[in-house]
Amino acid sequence: xxxxxxxxxxxxxxxxxxxxxxxxxxxxxxxxxxxxxxxxxxxxxxxxxxxxxxxxxxxxxxxxxxxxxxxxxxxxxxxxxxxxxxxxxxxxxxxxxxxxxxxxxxxxxxxxxxxxxxxxxxxxxxxxxxxxxxxxxxxxxxxxxxxxxxxxxxxxxxxxxxxxxxxxxxxxxxxxxxxxxx
Length: 182
What we know:
Distance between the termini: 24 Å
Strand order of the largest sheet: 3-2-1-4-5
CATH class: Alpha Beta
Mean pLDDT: 94
Number of helices: 10
CATH architecture: 3-Layer(aba) Sandwich
Order of helices and strands: EHHEHHEHEHEHHHH
Strand content: 5-15%
């Protein structure tokens, strides 16, 4: 099986339940995650704005743990590609540039409108919603996806959640179809 390399946009790293599930799936070796320091800074900055109960130190710890668990995930030195990318919102060009630099086949994002197909036709990258991505991986290896979900469920101790509660959380994070698979 060809290794899937997927760049995770800030919007899919922002909600902890979705981030945790995607990283648990990556630990099952179903795909290789990628992100950049710019993406990490974007989701943590936005989360701090919306969740004043969290600290910058705590989120930096999360970022460091992510980079330690997936040392190949942190894409750097892609800035020279940014000007080759033309998108409606120039602030999103770094995402495509990082994906190109790391030879990712997919960009996983909720913001598909920010990456129109006509802007990416010259690049070997597809844009995919996280719900579709997880559902597709479920078809490839149901057992591994279920193990990723179970691992997440077993880690939730403060407070502990039931299977249905975690499924509801994932639905609220945009995994409406995928959550029903567990």
